[in-house]
# Entry
Amino acid sequence: MTRAALALRIHRFEAVALGLLAAAALAFSGGLLLRLLALNVPLSCFLSSHSSDGLDSGCAGRSDYNDYLLLAGDIGMYAVIALAILPFILGLVLGVAVVAKELERGTVALAWSVGPSRLRWLLGVVVPGLVAILGVSLVAGVVADRLELARDPTIDPAVSLHHLGLRGVVLPAYVLASFGIALAVGARLGRVLPALLLAGALSLAGVLGTTAIVDGMLRTEAIPVDESSMMEVRAFAAGRVFDSLIRTPEGELITWAEAEDRFGTTFWEAMDPGSPGYDPTAGLRSVYLVTPGQLYPFAEWRLAIILGAIGLGGIVLAFAIVERRRPT
Amino acid sequence: MAAIETSGLSKRYRRIWALSEVDLTVHAGGITALVGPNGAGKSTLLKLCVGFERPTAGSLRIWGIDPTRDRAGAVGSVGYVPQDPSLYRELTVEEHLRFAASLRPRFDAEHARGRLRRLQIPLSAAATDLSGGQQAQVALAIALGTRAPVLLLDEPLANLDPLARREFLTVLGEAVRVDGVTAVLASHVVAEVEPVCDRLLVLGQGRVLLHETVAEALGGHRVAPEGAADAPGLVALFPDRAGAFHALVRAAADAPATRPATMEEIVMGYLAAGRAAPTAVVPSETATAVAVAS
# Structure
């Protein structure tokens, strides 16, 4: 029996519980994905729903199209959330169990007195556990990506910033981050419940903080795009919109408030073809500050690398704590 | 060769000194009974030896290795049995041996298996299905399977019934004879460890009160039943179970008005002497070192 199998035996409660949870989340999301694909709604229906002419009349009456929208909408969002939460739970529960459970039960006294190397002991649990949950979260990331495409077949998720952080390679990075934090907190506190609560709070703060930092980076990468181009160029439609601005005839970008100060409170009528005050010669144009969807792979990996670094930092810290701490 | 060697070894937990300037040499071979009341520093001394604690001051060598500088080397030189066997409830006995083998490169699982078979402890049984005595035997078998030259046993008898204690000590005594290891057995039940021990080490209030071979201790101490406080060679006055005080004296076998002392009386006498002595205080050099470190 290998060390990995023994580690699985020692943590079998967590392994079974997390296995069932992962199976449920993947079955729910995977089942929904298969159901959406089985409905086989033509792409034209989705494309027409985005066009200015409105939904194709052939699609409007189709019951499968309505079923599709229902499943892909609310229920699809539940599936996306389930897939995004799963890595957190996997990382937290396993990360706390690896050291804190053993410290709480006192079994480290046996392990640390028999094994000359605590590093070897910790690696024996961390490596197989991490490989398992990374594998599961990788599958979850792929399913979430496929689900993203299925929920809106008109946008390629590989070039869409929609639901950045809820799919793809970011999910394994969540696992790494929450696992590393839980491992370090568990090693320091040596008690399961307090470690679970503190690591949960720290993981949440870490992810929210990282997301905010990455959003800030994306904002600096945003470019102004004319409103008219937004729907014509799908890459912009799949981008992240940060602001709505006004481009002056001189090409300056100003806020709506600044435009009101300069051109009066009804300045927007000059830009609206349906308005009596429409004036195409005024030179004012509505623009959006958009980060193009093409940046998605870069943004995705950047987020994943930051989260992964947090996780690896936590793992290194946990090793340092284990190396120095008492077995009680 | 010295199995354990300490010099000025001190350990402080917050404001309490668990060990205070302990100078000690435990020579290789045989079983040393490490006795003393709760809080005497027995567990602390063993935990320092196995690298579970770091000394506040002083030095320690286990089988020639300083655990604070080379913990892996020190752990590799000892087999440790904690008071609570600390077995994994999810693993069988056999899986414990495999677990130990996975952590310790030269772990002799067959040696441990053989001992457990002789005790008729089923290898396929879950650790939680074993009695307290059997769990202690599994912990001892694992410690012996390490083939380490030094065995440290931290009150393994504390939670065992009398029969299990006797079986445990029999196995330990046999292992020490056959394998030629050095064992340090912490206990506060003096009478039970006496038959298997070669040396006696009495700790009290963090200090070494007595360290001799059992033969030297029994041959060199007598009891003056009248409890004369001015008896020559007086170690201390100590109470018997009825509350009457007797004098433990260092004296030859022909000392008048005395009778041979039992091991328990010797320990009682030295513990009483330890209590009568000033409480362990921070040695001036140690205090300076601690102040500088902090």
